[in-house]
Amino acid sequence: MKVVPFPTSSANTGSPRASAPSSTIAALDIGSTKICCLIGAVEGRRRRAVDETVPQIKIVGAGHCRSGGITGGAVTDLDQAERAMRTAIDQAERMAGRTISGVYVNMSGGRTLSVHVSGEVTMGRHAVDEAAKRRAAVNAMSKLDTDGRVVLHASVVQYRLDDARNVRDPEGMHGSTLTAELNVVLADANAISNLGLLLERCHLDAVGLVVAPYASARSVLLADEMELGVAVIELGGGTTSYAVFNEGMLAHADMIAVGSHHVTTDIARGLNTTIAHAERVKTLWGSTVPAQLDERELITCPILGETGSDAVQRVPRSMICGVVRPRMEEIFEIVRDKLGQVPVAQRFVRRVVLTGGGSQLNGVEQLAGEILCRQVRVARPSRFNGLPDALSTPGFCVATGLLRYGLAPDEQAAKLGLLIAGAGHDRGYIRRVGQWLKESF
Q: Cα(356)–Cα(78) distance, rounded to whole angstroms?
């Protein structure tokens, strides 16, 4: 399992103490079309029925700007990306009146891949304990073929105890064979290294690295949706990523290298206009559903490279739909085919939640329902105290989800890291696996 240089804060160790949120949480959404930085102050709210303090977040700083140097979710130009990132961070810090040093960061590129592995141990006449769960998890991870990638997330999808499946926590139970089935999300090592280098140039540490659709899910999903089975599709600018949840667990995550910015370039080519104006056309008139009046309504747009009286053209609005719909159909058809290869999605997922800037296109909910053959809804970010109205759109679900993740990091991933790290007295390979997971979670 390959370890890459990546600046991490000491809080990201997977220890129980690390799960307690600090007084300030910062989130950095690094995308192909925009970069957003949110700073939240952790506040306590006293419940009336129970004498306990529940942590809440108040947004005290927000900044976002057009991205640069990021293509397909990966860093392609360090200088441009640094300038854009510093702009967003500076806006948020000035608004908050404080400086940040650690951030939760999303991973929207890097050839993310979801792999399922399982490992088993023989129990004999003994009851299942922490040591048995640890050995099963270690045996599963020892079968993992990373193929040059590194681990982003690892979670136990289910335990099996003999013929009993879907066992949440088998501790204390009796059986002959305990099997742990894990879902492991991997990402390209070089992409993570470049992202870490970018953060270092901005004098930041990564407190946590979260795959984009999982971050969105933490912002928009209901507990019942995660329990019954749901897929979150993040329609980003350069990529479209998705995550599958069942029984409250992350069961699968993946991405495709096609996003809403490809719709923009399609419009620019189809209308022979500038990319900037194509983005404006997509935002104002982009639709996947044709209307009766589209043929009569004319849209004015400049012609690329022309000057004078020939610099402007008028095209029917129906032409915009004729460009937008095929590309969105392609995206949803690819996602449909990929979901068809995931057994959990085939059996349990009957609902899809759309997030990301691309989900704001008119008619996208209807088109997704037709192609995916599932119930579809478009989600907005969770309401935070102090969240500006301009950021309360589906395009900012990842940023707000990163804040929610920072408030309550993935406890199961942390426990899994500690379980495997507890096997450090075994072979050297197991010790390295455990140490990496301990540092990563």
A: 24
With beta carbons less than 8 A apart as the criterion, state whether 356 and 34 touch: no
Phi-psi region of 111 (alpha: psi -120 to 50; beta: other; left: phi over 0): left
Q: What are the pLDDT digits (tens) for 178-219?
A: 999 888 888 888 888 899 899 999 999 888 889 999 999 999
Query: Is 307 strand, coil or helix?
Result: coil
- Name the amino acid, one letter, at 315: V
- Give, for 283, the enclosing helix (H) or strand (E): helix 275-285
One-letter amino acid of 304: L
- pTM: predicted TM-score of the whole model, two decimal places: 0.85
The answer to whether 215 and 398 have CB atoms below 8 angstroms apart is yes
Supply the DSSP symbol for 98: S
Q: Which domains does the chain have, with CATH numbers?
A: 113-188+414-440 (3.30.1490.110), 222-378 (3.30.420.40)
Contact 153, 212 (CB under 8 A): no
3-state class (DSSP) for residue 352 = strand
174, β-bridge pairs: 127
